[in-house]
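Lab notebook, bench 4. The sequencing result for the construct came back, and we need a structural model before the next group meeting so we can plan mutations. Quick request posted to the team channel:

Model the 3D structure of this chain.
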Amino acid sequence: MSARPTVVIGLLGLQLDRAPRGQRWDRWRPTVSLFQHDDFEPARLVLLADPKADDLATEVAADVRASSPETVVEQVPMQFRDPWDFADVYEGLAAFADAYPLDPEREDYLVHVTTGTHVAQICLFLLVETRRIPGRLLQSSPPKGRGRVASGPGGYSIIDLDLSKYDRLAARFEDERREGVSLLKAGIETRNGAFNALIDRVEDVTLHSSDPILLTGPTGAGKTQLARRIYELRRSKRLVDGELVEVNCATLRGDQAMSALFGHEAGAFTGAVSRRDGLLRTANDGLVFLDEIGELGLDEQAMLLRAIEEGTFLPVGADAPVSSRFQLIAGTNRDLAEAVSDGRFREDLLARIDLWTFELPPLRARIEDLEPNLEFELDRVRRTTGRRVSFNREARERFLSFAVSPSSAWRGNFRDLGAAVTRMVTLARGGRITRALVDEEIERLSRAWSRARTPEPDAGL
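Done. Here's the predicted structure in token form:
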């Protein structure tokens, strides 16, 4: 034990600490048996006892003193209106923790969780885990194979909830965290520090928040892929039960937009011959990815805002609202703040979806990640086509030299890279991408970029 005085805090067990008349020393009683261990000599026992069980508390206190004369027993009244009501029990125990003169600089605290109802045990665990009671958990057990009808101290164990002190457990949690980050990056060992930091933050939000997420960045930067991986990570952690529903808002127009998102009743408009649920209802308990959200009309934006905030919306032609609870991920390559100024996007909707915003950088800003992404694209095409194709050494060096050079615009970002790899794999003979094929692809990309009339999405970099 520590050189500092040890203080045990525990509830009186109205059943476990009670013994039939004449059998006080013939039965295992958790609170008393703790102090029968030769290697366990706490300076003080803080016994939380219901005043209605004062006789039992007095008896247990006397037996503790008899077992461990150096231990001071301090009885503290603790009464719950309903010992099975979480709110009532937690409130009572938290009030004790706040009022009691705990001094962790001078004393070590052990919280005994063997006695009391399961509700009380959970509440004590929470108070220790949140450091409201700055101590460790103490658990006792009867003699093995004998049950309670036996004398003897049984066993005890001390549990420290500070996982940093448990290297193996800490390593396990770190491995799980790395797995989550790797999933968000599709297993690509990216090298760009800023991007890796962004993905770390995305992982934190994915695991701890169900609020809307806004993904911004140029076309081809990977917004759709990241949204899918966020869903996969939440699904793997059982944080969502429903489906992933993807919608490209640029394809939605007029009544069809309302119908696609919110559903409609039969006869709601010309051509509505049958009822339709709508994508938001399909995503109940799941996740919706609205790509190019800036293309939604103002009416659809108003309906979407209500669906996010209240979990309800009105299908086209319906008399009563329907409900659906989903997490929203929105994607855009537009400046939504500018769209608000121009009257093309609702300010209140932007405020609602802008809680967690992550801007995905263009490929040119992550040029050190081009090589691992090249390998990823090769594997993707291999899986899609069933062909095992690879570069010869000269061809690979030539392509990478071109890819990272300042003359490579990568206007379509990872879409350009994926398309280039697909073309070279398709044209490869004998499973090898040659220098000639690479030169042909470089010429093709250079021509395409020179013809492009739109400014580069990363022109300001």
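The mean pLDDT is 88.
Will bring this to the meeting.
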